[in-house]
């Protein structure tokens, strides 16, 4: 008898369809409009990247919509100062903080728990992963260009760790375009108003790296995990560091050079060369790096005499 009743209930029970849509989509925004005062449970479940919408809602426009077509999405739990300036198509997730002097470009996406403080400008289509912190309540400015990715719990544009910094002095950080700055990386502002910390374009800065005050980083560099640069270090273009290396303050790393893993660099590294060691020593040309960047055999041959000259100095 019980089995027969269960069979009947299953036949008459209405089918419930659930669609999963992107939190930036129209269906997610329409769902949030229907519940103007979200409950604690709603706020908790909305911290996930998936939003459950009604079966009849339209989720066809759920990803990568253009900034003009997509209005801003600001989660109810986010703390966005009314004086902050946001572009079109900006998505600000749960528990984010946006300060009063912040400018966000078009299409920026802030994942849950990311924060932007102080006089900070972030260019179009930048991505802040959960826990990322950009900017600080200090005199001066932090500027990021377009299409940068700030990784989980990275700290960018905060006060330097240098005792010569005087409270109240302006300090600056300028970052170019298309940089990927991975998790737990720290990049500090300059130590004085007459200088700047500068990072160029198209750099890959892997997890747990540190770039200290007043460093000058060029373009197309690759810093492997735990690359640590002290203050005033200059890195040119197309350099590559292996993991867990330390560069002494005021050192200069030349273009197309390679620093081996675990090295301590206490002197300048010439262009095109490879150095390695507990106190890094010259090991020859960075032949693999030159090959990857399509140097001709003639160009490599000319540079072969360069390290020999340095060894005689």
Automatic annotation (TrEMBL):
Keyword terms: Acyltransferase, Lipid A biosynthesis, Lipid biosynthesis, Lipid metabolism, Transferase
Q: Which InterPro entries does UniProt cross-reference here?
A: Acetyltransf_C (IPR029098), Hexapep (IPR001451), Lipid_A_LpxA (IPR010137), Trimer_LpxA-like_sf (IPR011004)
Q: Tell me which Gene Ontology terms the entry assigns under biological process.
A: lipid A biosynthetic process
Q: What is the lineage of its organism?
A: Eukaryota, Viridiplantae, Streptophyta, Embryophyta, Tracheophyta
Q: Which residues form the UDP N-acetylglucosamine O-acyltransferase C-terminal domain?
A: 268-300
One Pfam match: Hexapep
Q: Name one GO cellular component term.
A: membrane
The name under which this protein is listed is ACYL-[ACYL-CARRIER-PROTEIN]--UDP-N-ACETYLGLUCOSAMINE O-ACYLTRANSFERASE
Q: Name one GO molecular function term.
A: acyl-[acyl-carrier-protein]-UDP-N-acetylglucosamine O-acyltransferase activity
Instruction: Give the stretches traversing the membrane.
Output: none
| Species | Salix koriyanagi
């Amino acid at each position: 008898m019980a089995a027969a009743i269960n069979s009947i209930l299953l036949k008459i029970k209405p089918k419930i369809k659930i669609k999963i849509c992107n939190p930036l989509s129209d269906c997610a925004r329409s769902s949030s409009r229907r519940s103007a005062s979200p409950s604690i449970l709603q706020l908790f479940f909305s911290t996930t990247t998936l939003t459950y919408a009604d079966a009849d809602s339209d989720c066809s426009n759920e990803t990568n919509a253009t900034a003009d077509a997509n209005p801003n999405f600001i989660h109810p739990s986010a703390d966005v100062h009314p004086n902050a300036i946001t572009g079109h198509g900006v998505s600000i997730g749960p528990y984010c903080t946006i300060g009063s002097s912040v400018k966000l470009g078009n299409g920026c996406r802030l994942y849950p728990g990311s924060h932007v403080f102080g006089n900070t400008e972030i260019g179009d289509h930048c991505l802040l992963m959960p826990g990322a912190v950009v900017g600080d309540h200090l005199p001066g400015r932090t500027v990021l260009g377009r299409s940068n990715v700030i990784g989980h719990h990275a700290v960018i544009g905060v006060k330097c760790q240098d005792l010569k910094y005087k409270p109240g002095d302006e300090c600056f950080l300028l970052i170019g375009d298309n940089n990927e700055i991975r998790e737990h990386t720290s990049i500090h502002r300059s130590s004085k108003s007459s200088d700047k910390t500068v990072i160029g374009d198209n750099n890959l800065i892997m997890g747990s790296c540190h770039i200290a005050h007043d460093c000058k980083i060029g373009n197309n560099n690759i810093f492997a995990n735990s690359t640590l640069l002290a203050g005033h270090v200059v890195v040119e273009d197309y350099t590559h560091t292996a993991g867990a290396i330390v560069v002494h303050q005021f050192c200069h790393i030349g273009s197309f050079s390679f620093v081996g893993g675990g090295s301590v660099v206490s002197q300048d590294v010439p262009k095109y060369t490879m150095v390695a060691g507990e106190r890094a020593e010259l090991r020859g040309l960075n032949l693999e790096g030159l090959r990857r960047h399509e140097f001709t055999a003639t160009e490599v041959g000319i540079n072969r005499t360069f390290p020999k000259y340095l060894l005689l100095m």
